[in-house]
Amino acid sequence: MRQLLLLRHAKSSWDDPGLPDHDRPLDSRGRRDAAAMGEAMRRLGLSPDIVLVSSARRTLETLAAIEPLEGSPLVDEHAELYLAPAEKMLAMLHAVPETARSVLLIGHNPGLHDLALALIGPSGLASGGEDARRLGEKYPTGALAEFAIATPWWGVEEGGGRLVRFLCPKDLPAAHG
């Protein structure tokens, strides 16, 4: 069984309206939320072998804030993940080496939310309980969805993921401390 972790970048700053979107940093809440999510990931034993991350500043700062990740994963930064649609993210997952047991993808909405909904599929969304209901409603900044994947990476398709958990920063006490 493979593990796929989908992490939306944490809350970004809009303080400088002249800054290009790609270059927006995290704001103070985003840094706090990402650090809390990193702590939760360590507590849950979520340790990816590979991290696929958008080249946007806010995704790279999210990655920095959740570190250290267990096991020193291979970090692969991709410009094409910036605001990528679900289909592009899925194509990138199809190219992951079969030796990877766990992948963390750090990206943006709406593509990340669309990918999560595609993986869970309509039947998983309907029967997946409270986490699936919350995931169906929205994918907030800093949120993490964990999926169990039964196929090789190249075979991941719609309905091919079982939602294990959906964590939002508001669920984590450390994000409010």
UniProtKB/TrEMBL annotation:
Q: Where does substrate bind?
A: R58
Composition bias of kind Basic and acidic residues appears in 19-34
Which regions form coiled coils?
A: none
Pfam families hit by this protein = His_Phos_1 (PF00300)
Domain of life according to the entry: Bacteria
* Disordered: region residues: 15-34
Supply the name of the protein.
Histidine phosphatase family protein
